[in-house]
Amino acid sequence: MASRRRKLIVVSNRGPVSYVRDEEGKRSLRRGGGGLVTALRSLVSHHDVTWIASAMTFEDREVVAEAGGAAFDEVARDGSPYRLRLLAHDEHAYDLYYNVLANPTLWFVQHYLWNLSTSPDAAWPVQEAWDDGYVPVNSAFAEAVFAELEAEPDAAVFFHDYHLYLAPRLVRDRLPDATLAHFVHIPWAQPDYWGVLPERIRRSIHDGLLANDLVGFHTSRWSQNFVSACEAIAGAEWDEEGEALEHRDRRTRIAAWPISVDPAEFEELAGSEAVLERQQDLRAARTERLVLRVDRTDPSKNIVRGFRAFELYLRLHPEMHGRVSMLALLDPSRQDIPEYYAYLQAIEETAESINESLGRAGWQPIDLRIEDNFAESVAAYKEYDVLFVNAIFDGMNLVAKEAPLVNERDGVLVLSENAGAFEELGPWAIAVNPFDVAGQAEALHRALELPADERRARIEGIRAEVRERDLNSWLEGLLADLDRVALPTRSYDRL
Q1: How many structural domains comprise the chain?
Q2: Inter-residue contact 435 to 304 (CB < 8 Å)
């Protein structure tokens, strides 16, 4: 990590911890979920951090009330102190903000998930969700940032992801000299696709992000899409020499820094008692060859097509019946949202249909397990022969980086060309078009038949890349770019 400690205000919808009551009625901490929170935790160890996030549980709201809505002292697992400020939003506003506007609307736009011939339709409640949910919740985040900057005016503000596109503009309009950065962890759609949103909404999104000094993405592909969209939608102008967009008399630097993982953490996890116990169970039950997928049950992960590709592979290669199976470890995602609930049903029905059609006594083609079990996922990482990542679109996909680090069978990565990880790992993966089921079936066959020396060379290439460009590298790059814009005079100075 960088040697200089910074004063940072980290702003994200989900925080590093949430509060619950245990069986004895005592308050306890639960680590916040998701790759974003995991990636940002190391900031707390090396910088002076105040973290602003939404109150997610009933007990979180109790903590907010006890603190009078102010920030309070907390301690990370490694003993590092930080400040935490939780926001208890109006429940109806938060529901509109999260379950209607952020998910699925923005998520679906940025992952190209709308079937535009049928949806969204005239009954789409996006404008109500924007006005009565997304705007007030973003305003609440901005107010919290104002309060923290009043106490620490030299702190840099570090916004994260698609939940907070309006907050930077709200802060900038009141505090023109604040240092603001925003990292977007999901893809950025090309300009035309943003046309699915009402003009005032798509313009406000791009204008909001352009209030930052720095906007970061995982890949050059997403950053280039953002530049094009800002030009087309917000009227911004691109300065190639400065790698910045000019808009409303300000400059916003655009950067691509791929997020990664902590290799040492995964190597330690791989040897833990919980993982070793589950690995033993997997070995006892596995077939000769194992295809693995580890995903959330999100439509963007393309699970149903992946199952159909595996089915086609088995129909084309009956000699592999009983010798190969797919283990699908799926974390149920956003089940309060109708589109996600329907997709989980489709996943279950597809797996059941394939197993009924092709399975036999002692062998089921697809072993579908729907639960959040991280230890089992890491154990499966060690056991796969093929890792199947066929996302429709993905900002990064950390599974593609995590699993090869600990795999013990020289497993082959089959990777969607639309996953952000493809920009880094493509040379060592077998590429697939996520819409081409036949092509995915052929890729699975190729991966299972690769010679041992090629398998070894491919996984060693992935490991070297991930270890060189690890989580610390991502944070270092972002903070170095933040230093470049955190200058006494920023507007229209060369960065």
Answers
A1: 2
A2: no
* CA-based nearest residue to 40, from 19, 67, 13: 13
- Check: CB of residue 397 under 8 Å from CB of residue 391: yes
Q: Which two tokens stand for residue 332?
A: 């149920």
Residues 6 or more apart in contact with residue 56 via CB below 8 angstroms: 14, 15, 18
Does one domain contain both 353 and 419?
A: yes
Cβ-in-10-Å burial (0-12, 13-18, 19+) of 356 comes to exposed
pLDDT digits 0-9 by tens, 384-414: 999 999 999 999 999 999 999 999 999 999 9
Confidence of residue 435 (pLDDT cuts 50, 70, 90): very high
Same domain, 222 and 290: no
**Other C-beta atoms within 10 Å of 336: how many?**
10
- Assign residue 374 the CATH number of its domain: 3.40.50.2000
The DSSP-derived string for 212-278 is SSEEEESSHHHHHHHHHHIIIII--EEETTTTEEEETTEEEEEEE------HHHHHHHHTSHHHHHH
Angle value at C-alpha 157, between 156 and 160, nearest 5 degrees: 140
* Rounded Cα distance, 234 and 431, in Å: 35
Per-residue pLDDT averaged across 6-19, rounded?
93
Asked whether residue 410 falls in the same domain as residue 303, the answer is yes
Residues ≥6 apart with Cβ < 8 Å to 361: none
Q: Are residues 350 and 386 in the same domain?
A: yes
For residues 108 and 355, give the distance between their C-alpha atoms in angstroms, rounded to a whole number.
30
One domain, residues 399 and 271:
yes
What does the pLDDT read at residue 40? 78
Is the same domain home to 50 and 169? yes
Which parts of 402-485 are beta strand (E)?
412-416, 430-432
The answer to whether residues 249 and 301 belong to one domain is: no
Do 286 and 203 lie in a common domain? no
- DSSP annotation of 77 reads T
Pair 153, 179: CB distance under 8 Å = no
Query: What gap in Å lies between CA 183 and CA 219, rounded to an integer?
Result: 12
Q: For residue 383, what are the domain limits?
A: 263-468
Give every strand in the sheet of 289-296, ordered side by side: 366-370, 324-331, 289-296, 386-389, 412-416, 430-432
Contact 163, 139 (CB under 8 A): no
What is the C-alpha to C-alpha distance for residues 157 and 305, in angstroms, rounded to an integer?
A: 40
- Mapped onto helix, strand or coil, the DSSP state of residue 490 is coil
Query: In the numeric block, which tokens belong to residue 282?
Result: 């997997």
| Residues 466, 432 contacting (CB under 8 angstroms) | no
pTM above 0.90, yes or no: yes
Contact assessment for residue 166 and residue 237, using Cβ atoms and an 8 Å cutoff: no
